[in-house]
Design brief:
2 copies of one chain form a homodimer. The first copy, chain A, is mainly alpha-helical. The first copy, chain A, has 6 helices and 3 strands, in the order ααβααββαα. The first copy, chain A, folds into 2 domains: 94 residues, Winged helix-like DNA-binding domain superfamily/Winged helix DNA-binding domain (Arc Repressor Mutant, subunit A); 30 residues. Helix content of chain A is 70%, strand content 8%. Chain A is globular and about 60 Å long. Chains A and B meet through α1, α5 and α6 of A and α1, α5 and α6 of B. The structure holds a DNA duplex.
DNA sequence: TATTGTTATACTCTATAACTATA
DNA sequence: TATAGTTATAGAGTATAACAATA
């Protein structure tokens, strides 16, 4: 007798496990979840202003200052002057930062493959579709509830 | 062409959305994620020592002191003397705390039902089984990686 | 001697508000 | 006047280490 609550509980459990697994990997490299999230964003967007990062991470500009301070100190990123706007700075990945993100992509790929290694193609297709449906429902809930 | 990485990304996205939704509900009541987690644990275990809660939440005893201070101040829980061990205290839910947990169960049930409201019985069964399989795989990964 | 909870101290993430330098 | 980033200040979550009371 499966029901929605079971699904919800499982999703919560999975979320927790993924978080734990990721912090276990990042800790040694001197990275935290928040800092990694910032680097990840820079990795995908390319050199970005702190304002852009604040918007992308849905976090205050002040917070970004702190995170950039930390990853700069750790050698993962660098502040560079914006070529045309002298008020702004561009956050860029260093070689070390680029390497860290590449490692992360690789390790995430391994985990991802392992998660569904039992599934045949049809099953994976169905499961993916179901996850997409649940995600869409969640987005609906979020949009309904916070009309701002 | 679905693959494991898509699944992984979706799971991350779902985790994020659920977190956001939950904090949106808890904020108004004066509760945070960490405090709610503690109350949730007390709700399920019954009156518990802080040591037991620290173990259950996988958090330091010192941390539990702070969280209990906060939920006690907020009127959600109470410290009571342990009947046989005078070193220990039992954390118990107040009426307000019990009500808050009941509300949470109800609201979580609504969300959960909505998430899979499109699914017919067979689909829900399959989806649940797939989620269980993924969860089992994640547990494997966690156990492998942290031999401690 | 071991355990329970607390005080002391410190680090990270987060926020708002005020300020500086530029647009 | 508005925007980019910083300083100032504050609160929450987390940790370790030292300590008191009790087992």
């Amino acid at each position: 007798m499966p029901d929605g609550v079971h699904v919800f509980d499982r999703l919560l459990e999975i979320a927790l496990l993924i978080q734990q697994d990721m912090s276990r990997e990042l800790g040694p490299a001197g990275l935290t979840a928040a800092r990694t999230h910032l680097l990840w964003e820079v990795h995908h967007r390319g050199p970005s202003t702190q304002q852009a990062l604040a918007a992308a991470l849905q976090v205050s500009p002040r917070n970004v200052t702190g995170l950039v301070d930390a990853v700069e100190k750790g050698g993962f990123a660098r502040r560079e002057p914006h070529p045309t706007d002298r008020r702004a700075t561009l956050v860029t990945l260093t070689e070390q930062g680029t390497r860290a993100m590449a490692d992360m992509v690789a390790s995430r790929g391994q985990i991802a493959a392992h998660l569904v290694s039992d599934f045949d193609t049809a099953q994976l297709q169905r499961f993916t579709a179901d996850l997409d449906a649940v995600t869409a429902r969640l987005h609906e809930l979020m949009d309904d509830g916070s009309p701002t």
